Amino acid sequence: MRRTRLQVIAAGVAATAFFFVLGGPRLAASAAEKPIVIGASISETGAYADSGKLALQGYQLWVKQRNAAGGLLGRQIELKTYDDASDPATAVRLYQRLIDQDHVDLIVGPYSSAVTASVANVAQQHHMPMISPEVASTAPFERGLTEIFQGIQIASDYVEGPIAIAKEKGFKTIAVTGEDTLFPRSVVAGVDDLAKKMGMTVVFNQLYPHNASDYSSIVEKMKQSNPDIVIAASYLPDSVGLLRAMKQANFAPKLVYEGVGPTELSFGTQNGKDADGVMGTGNWSAELKTQGNASFVKAFTSTFGHPPDYHAAANYASLEVLGEAVKRVGSLDSAKLRDQLATLTMPTVMGTYKVDPKTGIQQGYKSLVLQWVNGKQFVIYPKALAQQPPSLPFVSWSTR
Amino acid sequence: MHAALIGQLTIDGLLVGGVYALSALGLNVIFGVMRIVNLAHGEFVIGAALLSAVLFERWHANLFVVLPLAFVLAFGLGALIQRAFLRRLPEDLASAEATSLLMTFGLSYFFVGAWLTFFSGNFRSVPYLTGAWTLGPFSIAQARLAAFVASGIIAVLLALLLRYTALGRSIRATSQNVQGALACGVDVERVRTLSFALGTAIAAASGCLLILIFTVNPETGANVTLASFAVIALGGLGNYAGTLVGAAVIGLAVSFTGYFATAQVAQAAPYVLFILVLLLRPAGILGKSGA
């Protein structure tokens, strides 16, 4: 018994020594060309887990590709991420840790507007410029912060597309609905003025609460107002619920627009053939003819075994921008990088990156109106990027 | 036109009420026998709902396969929970009620976390029977009708079980008087286990039907629990026939307030009714006062 223990200890000492002998020189060698570390927190668990994972994979793919092509400034790149569990307070602590303890060289934004808004203060305090791909709200940019840059489209111009399309088709009356929370409310806020400008009338305007489960009553009310088009500022669950209630009430206006819900692929799986004809506003599409988009989609799909979504694309594009900024500056100097990110104009998979140098608000990326046709999403607006013209009117439920 | 509209709202309300009724029946069986206010009830409903959504996504699994499967799984899970946790609660009534409340509250958190892990936070629904039949001026949603009919069948089976089988007699005896049941040789522990298992299984069945109508994620279970409680409060705790009436009232209230007021009012309607009934008729609409 005693002998055995001695043997174990001896073996342990030998093994440790062995590792030191082997590993020592290697550690010393790698210190000379330490990788550039990019830090971020991502919601890998919690309410945003699914989208957060895709966002993270967008980052991962760019790092992988960049390293294969020789890295940045002749150094390899390492991505250091933590899980913030979709919680802003946790994310703030994690970014502090990334900067103070892990001494990362660069940071990039986390997932969701709320988390980004909190983390932006940390970036500001440490003078670390941060490009943020997951913040559609402009609120964090209106606080005089100088270190954050929006890597995705702003939310407020969403309804312009569907109303322009409706105007072109000669549709006159609009029923407006949406979830009664901050983002959808800001989306529909502009509808009244826009309709007036276009010579159209809003015949119904009422929102439904967050987490509503039964949409039959609100759909019945919309049906009674007999509109040409329905504009709903919806997320995924409510866009599915509304559409289903519309089918059940046999209510088929000439144009159906449902906010951001229809841009998610599971809108198609959850609605099957009923999704056909529904429009939504998206930030990106696999079919988009932006620079490098086709090869991005291919590489992403073969790396992760599933196609990317706009989260993945926006995160990938943000690292494209950061990489280009580092290349142009030629070092990791934060102040120079900040100025570069503020003034840089460059093509990415999302479109043309360009921000307002004062606020960091995105100006280059344009929202796209997507439409489901035969079980697939197509870009139908703006015309310059459209894959095909809008398919209208919305087909009545009984003739599908 | 107006009459047609009122008819349509009535149809919508009653059909949804059918699904509320089934979920509430499960809760009522558990309360009747065990005097346990099961705050984790909605989690069983949602768990089954998400399971059937996932099975549909993967293999287009039909409701007739998923519902019995969920029923059996939930029955086992319910029995396990009763054996492992609830049976160990203190016997004296006053503290038992408080502890059971805390315990089921804890269980509900556990299951929300478990479902988030299994099913992720995504909202899900099942694109099955999404159409509607037109009947004169009315449109009758296929999913709602199917859910209503299936709920009705399960409710009838439950009624037959309670009325005509030995187990049903034991359940009713235990609900009415534990001491009396014990004196007549009823194995009360076994009845409790089976009741909790049965209540959980019925919750799961209602979840499989609910997903035909609603879109849910793991965090919506509390809404289901609350709606089921509102139904039971209206119908009377432990009163099975009252549950059906309560469910119809809630369904109609939601449907009509949703149309004539706003969706926000409709969402509050079950709870306003719940409070009114507790204040004015604490034994439920059909209950005798002081019962």
Describe, in plain words, how this protein is organized in 3D:
The complex is a heterodimer of chains A (400) and B (291). Chain A is elongated, with a radius of gyration of 25 Å. In chain A, helix 4 links the parallel strand 3 and strand 4 (130-132). In chain A, helix 2 (49-68) runs parallel beside helix 12 (310-329), helix 3 (88-100) packs parallel to helix 4 and helix 12 packs across helix 13. In chain A, the strands form four sheets. A five-stranded parallel beta sheet of chain A has the order 2-1-3-4-5, with helices on both faces. Chain A has a four-stranded parallel beta sheet with strand order 7-6-8-9, with helices on both faces. In chain A, strands 10-13-14 form a three-stranded antiparallel beta sheet. The model of chain A is unreliable at 17-31 (pLDDT under 50). The relative contact order of chain A is 0.12. Chain A is α/β, with parallel strands linked by helices and 400 residues long. The longest helix of chain A has 31 residues, at 2-32. Chain A contains 13 helices and 14 strands. Chain A folds into two domains: 36-153 and 288-354, Response regulator (Rossmann fold), CATH 3.40.50; 156-282 and 368-385, Response regulator (Rossmann fold). Chain B has a domain at 22-218. The mean pLDDT of chain B is 87. Chain B contains eleven helices and two strands, in the order ααααββααααααα. Chain B starts with a helix and ends in an 11-residue tail after the last helix. Chain B has a two-stranded antiparallel ribbon. Chain B has 291 residues and is mostly helical. Chain A binds chain B through residues 45-50, 180, 206-209, 211-218, 220-221, 224, 236-238, 240-241, 244, 247-250, 266, 269-272, 274, 397, and chain B through 5, 8-9, 12, 16, 57, 116, 120-127, 130-132, 134, 139, 141-144, 213-217, 219-220, 223, 254-259, 262-264, 266-267.
